[in-house]
Description:
single chain, alpha/beta, 4-stranded antiparallel β-sheet
Amino acid sequence: xAIWNEYRMVKCSRCGLVYADPRPAHExxxxxxxxxxxRGSKDEHTWARLMGPNFLEVAALLxxxxxxxxxxxxxxxxxxxxxxxxxxxxxxxxxxxxAEKTFAYARSKGLDVCRTVIEDASFPENxxxxxxxxxxxxxxxxxxxxxxxxxxMLRPGGIIVLRVPHTTPLVELLGRLGVGNNxxxxxxxxxxxxxxxxxxxxxxxxxxxxxxxxxxxxxxxxLAERFVSQLSGAVARLLFGLSGNRFLMPGVSKTVIARKPAxxxxxxxx
Length: 270
């Protein structure tokens, strides 16, 4: 489907999942991520503005769903902006982050952050009300295994909140127009999830009550990118609302919420 250097994105003919082939080794990915958040001269302030609307939207949602607050883990927490936001709202929020500079910044602010990846993280089972992962799942070599591990950390009835890109429709459109691009962001992104494939992988991991929405758009630092993000995000949210929360506009990122079954209600080891 798309080729970048020695990497290419391909689509499974059976399930429709789009994935990188080959996938970089685990050690290669860790090395790549040490400078990931600083690409394009970004810094902690750029990322705070970029993700701010989505963070605020998810924070408000979680406060409505869990008025008594609780324990929250943010996977791939970056500079720790979402953890700080949730701590200020009364949550016991912690994070994991593999990149050295972003981890160091989060720790310098006194946040509860561990430098590790979800594959190597160790958290007690049934100990968390919420797990969040903003633009993380597409980076993982084995997202299904990560979701199964995450599900075990959640209390029965706890939820996971994901933010994932849906780039394939844009890549296919540009391909038909003969426009080369690396919108997949190879080799950093190893998967691209459609609404159907993200639902499928969450179901396989044992989650239920899966909801996929357009969510609030990001605010990129470059003016042209910001215009496209805000316009497409606004259109996606408008169409979603007008369709009775059924139509999901292709090509825009999705916010995904899923629940771990309550004890005695279909819970299994997936």
